[in-house]
Description:
mainly alpha, two-stranded antiparallel ribbon, about 5% strand
Amino acid sequence: MEDTAAHPAPAAPEAASVVRVGSGGARYTRAPKPPAAGRPGGARANQRALQAAVREFIVAKGLAAGAPLPTETELMAELGVSRHPLREAMKALEAVGIVDIRHGYGTYVGSVPFSALEAGLTFRTALSVRGDHSDIRNLVEVREVLETGLAGRVLAAYDLLDADALEGHVAAMERAAAEGRFTPEHDWAFHEALYRPLGNELVLDLLQVFWKVFAALDPDLPGAPDTPAATARWHRGILEALRSRDEQALHEALADHFRGIRARLAGTAG
């Protein structure tokens, strides 16, 4: 029988401890000690735990976007880790916008942009184009629910709308359509002007991500793409419904904006 004493079982990783920070008694998880050599799974787990500890530290300290983080040395002491794993954690957090590393100046709390969401959705829908299009249909549904669901709030903020800007964007689309051209910059600017009075930056960020994903996807969708004239007509319909202050009409005009995409996908449902 093999002598198990000569091959002791690897020690379990140290459980994360909890320390108090800040005058309000806020709590964050202290990162575990580095794993033993030869345990890549443990290394990945500890790296995830360290990233979580940094996120919790930011929240516990009440640091806002743009606020400076403690120096690397101070963070090492706060979180109980060495320089290398901390730097790896910071690089990973910077990739998703949680921190902003400014070389020569320090590290700051990031604004958490939606670039990671946009990249993920673009990749996923690109795969869906070559598959059953289910992810594209799901994304169409999410965007339609979001935009049509805001119809009432848009009308409630009617007096805050920039009517001249909305008319200008539609007119620009119509002029370009007469020449057979799309004007995507006016397309997005119209939607931005429509929803900005709601005062919800998250809505604008999400809508812009969806708009960019669909703009990249459109050439690869099945069926004939929308014409510039159809795109201009849809936006004119939204603007006229808005001017009528009729919520049902606005809801229908917004929904009509998605019917072209639905029609192109209809033949691929399975």
